[in-house]
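User: Quick sanity check before I run a bigger batch. Here is a single chain. Can you write out its predicted 3D structure?
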Amino acid sequence: MRITVSGLPGSGTTSLSRYLSERYGFTMISAGEVFRQCAKEHNMELAEFGRLAEKDPAYDKMIDARQKEIAEKSDNIIVEGRLSGWMVENADLKIWLFAPISCRLDRIVFRDQIADVETAKAITLEREHCEAIRYQQYYSIDINDHSVYHLILNSEHWGVDDLGKIVAAAIDQLKKTPFAAS
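Assistant: Done. Predicted structure follows.
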């Protein structure tokens, strides 16, 4: 089974992906973690690294191509990333997580150890803007078009365990009556 988990920064995609990976024993690959690691390796903030990636498409395309290649050759995998629902066309279940910006910013401040919410907001909005432009330019993908997703969940009011239970119900149903991936 191939599952993609996508959403904007701070929506909980990495947490849910880890949960599902542990629960089902699936391999997990994460574009966000790869991107954050690359930024760190270049001694850059995420927004700064995003601007670099905006100038040189090789960064995004390398991460995206690698994820797609691994996912399409693998079974029992969770592919986490903003574009994974678009890139992994043969996924059995494509999930989009969303949460209001205030919720996402609180999570980002904690996760990335940013000094305050206003700083996190500036960084996050710039990052989202840069990414949206790149996705449109590179792949003609509108990140706000969720039509490829099978399951869209608001992560604001549920913790990862509760979200995991909702997704588990979908996975269990798919195991009973699989459908052709769209």
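The CA atoms of residues 136 and 142 lie 6 Å apart.

User: Great, the batch can go ahead then.
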